[in-house]
Structure formats: structure tokens, C-alpha cells
Amino acid sequence: MKKFKLLFIIMLTAYMASAQTTFDLNWFVGINNSQASITVGTGDTVRWTWTDEVPHSVTSKSSSQENFDSGILTGSGTQFSYTFTQVGINEYKCDVHSDMEGTITVEQTMSVDDKFRKNISFYPNPVNNKLTVASLYKLDNYKIYNILGQLVAQGKATGNITYFDMSNLESGMYFINATSGELQSTFKVAKQ
Predict the structure, then answer these.
(1) What does the domain layout of the chain look like in residue ranges?
(2) How many CB atoms lie within 10 A of CB 3?
(3) What is residue 46's three-state secondary structure?
(4) Which of 117, 121, 90, 116 lies closest to 104, judged by CA?
(5) Does this chain's domain 21-110 share its CATH topology with 118-191?
(6) Are 164 and 142 in contact (CB under 8 A)?
(7) Does domain 118-191 have CATH number 2.60.40.3080?
(8) How far is CA 96 from CA 37, 57, 154, in A?
């Protein structure tokens, strides 16, 4: 009986560490490729939400690992979801607006920590004054460390997109630690 309980706990822990997730992407005229590109695990769902009033589609390109197509849909708040089941790269586009495109990279089952780390982006790098940090997860806090590991700035984040004021920092390399609940990611940024 003890072996069964231990096996059950191990299996439950493995399942929780790699739980399927639904990722939300806003879909609108003017979105750039980096905003529309994410990495997910097999079994994860991506849900695109139209955030403007014009028609769009979410259509896989011929080079994609999987085939999906929303058809042309119109209206703010309209949604299309697709669950990815195969490891590979899935390039997609809008059939109405040729400059709207992105890539969904599917990896073997990923932990929630891995999903957070792989889906945080920051730009520009190098930065002059304002650094934009975007995540599929709501960001809570951030800390900025210099190359010596000294804390030079910290603050509350403001959601999925946060702007860090780096104008008062000297030129050099910095490490930014961003958190979302218990999740955290650290990345390197050059300040000009």
C-alpha cells in the first residue's frame, strides 16, 4: 500500500509539473511577429482573441507541423482556439492582413516554470531608457541587478506588459528578475 501511495504521489507531481495550459494571444492589425510567437508544450491550447473590429483569420502556413484555420472572423472579442498535439514549428498568418503572422513552437511536455521562462520577451536590447517586458503570465514584481549582483532597482509590475524605467542607470549589463506568483525568470539586458 505504501508503494502505491508513493507511486501515486510521483505520478500526480509529474502531471502537475507538466499540466496543460491555455495561452491567450491578442490578434489585431499591427501585431508584430514577436508578440504573436510563443512556445508551448504538447497538449497546450492557444486561444487567439480579436481585439479590433476588422476581419482576421488564424491560418497555418504550408510549412506548419499542424494544420489549423479559423476561417475569416470579425468582431472585437471573437476567439479561435487550437490545441497543439505534435512537437514542431507552426507558422501561421492572417489571410486578410499579410503582415500579421507568428509562430507557435511546440515542445514535449513542459513544466509551468519552463512555459513562463520561454514566453517572456523584452525589448529593445540594448535599451536607452524604457525597457518593455511582455509575458503570457501576469507579472507581479521585478528586480534589477548590476553585473556585481547588487540590487539597483525594484518595483511592482503592471500585468502582462510592463515598462521598466532604466534611464537613471549607468551604461552596462544588468540582470532583470521578473516574477509571476511563484514563477520567476532572469534575463540579461544591456543599458546604453
Answers:
(1) 21-110, 118-191
(2) 7
(3) strand
(4) 90
(5) yes
(6) yes
(7) yes
(8) 19, 7, 42
Local mean pLDDT, 10-residue blocks, the chain (192 residues): 43 46 93 91 96 97 98 96 97 97 92 89 92 90 94 90 91 95 93 94
Residue 147: count of CB within 10 angstroms of its CB = 10
Set of cell numbers at residue 77: 472579442
DSSP 69: B
pTM above 0.85, yes or no: no
Helices in the chain by DSSP H: which ranges?
2-17, 112-118
Residue 130 φ then ψ, to 5°: -115, 120
Distance from chain centroid for Cα 23: 8
What are 83's three cell numbers?
490545441
Q: Using an 8 Å Cβ cutoff, are 76 and 50 in contact?
A: yes
Into which CATH architecture does domain 21-110 fall? Sandwich (2.60)
How many H-runs (helices) and E-runs (strands) does the chain carry? Answer: 2, 12
